[in-house]
Design brief:
Helix content: 40-55%
CATH architecture of the largest domain: 3-Layer(aba) Sandwich
Distance between the termini: 32 Å
Structural class: alpha/beta
Radius of gyration: 30 Å
Strand content: 15-25%
Number of helices: 25
Number of strands: 22
Largest sheet: 7 strands, mixed
Strand order of the largest sheet: 6-7-4-3-2-5-8
Shape: globular
CATH class of the largest domain: Alpha Beta
Bound molecules: adenosine-5'-diphosphate, magnesium ion
Number of domains: 4
Length: about 700
């Protein structure tokens, strides 16, 4: 319990009603929460702009102007009721509008007084317009000098009279009520990095006296967040590495050698060979392997998994391959059983729809050791699935699995099996370092030979005919086509409608071709049936939502049309595009959008047309969107509750923080030295201790 753990309703100027609103809108409950609701940007309020000057600007930032109201009138009725003022500063006029608290505001302004307005003007119907600005009397001191923080707010809060200034005032209230906020980092770390004290940093972040001071405050606060996050992860990683033993697989034997020399369907790429060597070396050390295999879509991760499974079998152990969907699991099963049949490896498939009889047989073969490789969906981690000696686990497209599920896999064996996590979603380095700690990473950075990069084009609704012709050309050559629609839960009904209309349109446009149809809300059996039609070339066109995103392999599909492409994230587009270009033929990805799209959106889509490099796209995605979505899918088990640091743009501070973490843990692994007590208590303050994630990669 710290002095900041006080309910904000007790803060002067808040009270129960506003407290409730802050709570609901921004999740602010305590003094601490309020203090850590930082401005996201700052405006230099010592600068006053003239109206003449802003008229000439093509893009107008948040600015302040000084002048007086020429007129102030309440206009309109009901919902359209508004207060309109004409404001002049001698160089020109600007219209100022309020839609809320109309009467109260009307009564508070005087026409013959000088005011300072602060806000972001826009052009509306050719007129310069300022909606809901902050208003100060010129005489007000302190409020309009220097750097001012702009606090993130919601529309509801704005409509209820909250402004950036309100939050500033409330934060100042907390700082006054709790002077000398206690330090949260140890003195050795503060000294080594010449950090500002927490108290100074919190004061400066809300009310900076200079840009330099702001800079130092931001550094201190970002450093702290990244430091504790990594301290937490490194503690786990180190503990795990020191306590867990792993199986030793010293041998390369009959199965691997026979397959490698006689059954390989094609020559391995250099990258595939290198990765297999890395994995082999890991599995021979006696340390439990936790390896992330990143390889762009189509880079041939499956074959790597297969060869490594053979190493486990050669050493007398079983292997298990887990995939996120039935389609994918059965596709893997098809590949494995076909390739491994000649050398007598026993492979079975276990999914939710496996019949009881077959399931019983699998259970028996698993426990008596007759089954070498089990492939399946979530079904394989159910409690009643027991192995004789599970030595190697592959988790494909890992971002679809939660940490808890992976943890269950570990429990299937006394000594945890070696784990290979495969993903086609490239994870930028800073993120990997932070989220995965010391997970080893292998990269397949080379596509099998003969692949032609997918040609990607941006097309508009007005080009529809041309696009249909292109599709027709591919179909006539016996190729298959994906047509993908977005499905976003916010408005599922509408999305489903557009999907259904799209499906009808496709059927009408290509009446001589067979069209399959899948979306996420279908029953799995129906979905699998429809997907099966496309996979087996009993359908030429697949109209789908993003259910096809992960892993399906139909080399004969050469064209992918993505409708409303602007509604997809870059990484998602990249994943989708990876479904084509899997055979030797030239493939195409057509991104369809309305003609009018925002500049940012166009930039995003143009990046897709200019590169097929998954890492470049992931980095750009991280820069443009922030890491939020990626973190969400990482499910690292450690909540990344970052207020100010950004994994996307604070790579350098991440690195510095990591070096500090290593220095601390190298010298004091248990954090038992007196000067580090503060770190221990901060860790327990910051992270929920009830969940033990220590067993997880
Ligand atoms: P991903 O890495 O996306 O899982 P897959 O393992 O599904 O990729 O491989 C994609 C396609 O490339 C498959 O059809 C596979 O048979 C083929 N492939 C894999 N490795 C090679 C290789 N070395 N040479 C040629 N084709 C390969
Ligand atoms: Mg795959």
């Amino acid at each position: 319990m710290s002095r900041l753990d006080v309910d904000i309703k007790y803060l002067k100027g808040v009270g129960p009603k506003r407290a409730d609103m802050l709570n609901k809108q921004l999740g602010i409950r305590t003094f601490h929460d309020l203090l850590y609701h930082f401005p996201t940007r700052y405006v230099d309020r010592s600068v006053i702009h003239t109206i003449a000057e802003i008229r000439g600007m093509s893009e107008i930032p948040t600015i302040q102007i000084k002048g007086h109201f020429v007129t102030l009138n309440i206009q309109g009725e009901g919902a359209r009721r508004r207060l309109t003022g004409l404001f002049s500063d001698g160089t020109g006029t600007i219209e100022v509008v309020w839609f809320k608290r109309v009467k109260a505001l009307r009564d508070s302004f005087l026409t013959n007084t000088t005011y300072i307005l602060f806000g972001k003007p826009t052009f509306f119907n050719g007129r310069l317009n300022l909606v809901h600005p902050e208003v100060d009397k010129e005489s007000a001191t302190g409020a309009i000098k220097g750097l001012h923080g702009i606090y993130p707010l919601t529309e509801t809060l704005r409509n209820n009279g909250f402004s950036s200034k309100t939050l500033f005032t409330l934060a100042q209230g907390v700082l006054a009520a709790v002077p000398n906020i206690g330090e949260t980092l140890s003195s050795d770390i503060i000294a080594r990095n010449r950090l500002m004290s927490l108290n100074d940093a919190l004061n400066a972040i809300h009310n900076p006296q200079s840009p330099e001071e702001l800079q130092r405050a931001r550094f201190r606060l970002k450093f702290e967040e990244l430091f504790y996050l990594q301290l937490k992860i490194q503690q786990y990683t180190r503990r795990r590495n020191s306590t867990t033993k792993g199986f030793v697989f010293p041998r390369i034997g009959h199965f691997f050698n026979t397959f490698y020399s006689q059954c390989l369907p094609f020559q391995l790429t250099g990258a595939q060979k290198r990765v297999i060597r890395e994995i082999r070396a890991d599995m021979a050390t006696g340390k439990q392997m936790n390896r992330l295999l990143q390889g762009d879509v189509g880079s041939g991760k499956t074959l790597v998994a297969l060869l490594c499974a053979l190493i486990a079998i050669d050493n007398g152990y079983q292997a298990c391959i887990m995939a996120p969907t039935e389609i994918l699991a059965s596709q893997h099963f098809g590949t494995f059983s076909e390739l491994l049949a000649p050398i007598g490896v026993n492979v079975k498939l276990l999914t939710g729809s496996t019949r009881k009889k077959e399931r019983d047989a699998i259970h028996e073969q698993l426990t008596n050791g007759a089954l070498h490789i089990l492939i399946g969906t979530h079904a394989v981690i159910e409690d009643n699935v027991e192995f004789k000696n599970l030595g190697f686990v592959v988790i494909d497209e890992q971002h679809r699995f939660g940490v808890a599920q992976r943890a269950k896999m570990w429990k299937k064996s006394e000594i945890p099996p070696h784990v290979l996590v495969m993903t086609a979603t490239p994870i930028p380095r800073t993120l990997a370092m932070t989220v995965y700690g010391d997970l080893s990473v292998s990269v397949i950075d080379e596509l099998p030979p003969g692949r032609k990069p997918v040609v990607t084009q941006l097309r508009y609704d007005t080009n529809r005919y041309e696009v249909d012709c292109a599709i027709g050309r591919e179909l006539r050559q016996g190729r298959q086509v994906y047509i993908v629609f977005p499905l976003i839960t916010e408005n599922e009904k509408l999305d489903l409608q557009s999907l259904e209309e799209g499906y009808e349109r496709v059927c009408n446009t290509f009446p001589h071709y067979r069209v399959a149809y899948v979306h996420g809300r279908m029953k799995p059996a129906v979905k699998d049936y429809q997907m099966g039609l496309f996979v087996n070339h009993e359908a030429d066109i697949l109209v789908a939502t993003t259910v096809i995103e992960v892993g399906v392999n139909v080399p004969n599909a050469t064209t992918m049309v993505i409708e409303n492409a602007e509604r997809f994230g870059l990484s998602q587009l990249h994943q989708l595009r990876g479904r084509v270009g899997r055979g030797g033929d030239q493939s195409y990805c057509i991104l369809m959008t309305k003609h009018q799209i925002a500049r940012d959106t166009r930039r995003r889509l143009e990046l897709m047309t200019s590169t097929t490099d998954g890492f470049e796209i992931a980095e750009a995605d991280l820069q443009m969107r922030g890491p939020g979505d990626i973190e969400g899918t990482m499910q690292s088990g450690v909540a990344l509750n970052l207020h100010i640091a950004s994994l996307a743009s604070d790579g350098q501070i991440t690195q510095i923080a990591r070096e500090n973490v290593d220095a601390v843990l190298d010298n004091d692994p248990d954090l038992s030295r007196p000067e580090h007590h503060i770190l221990v208590s901060q860790l327990s303050e910051l992270f929920d201790q009830s969940v033990d994630w220590s067993n997880i990669s």
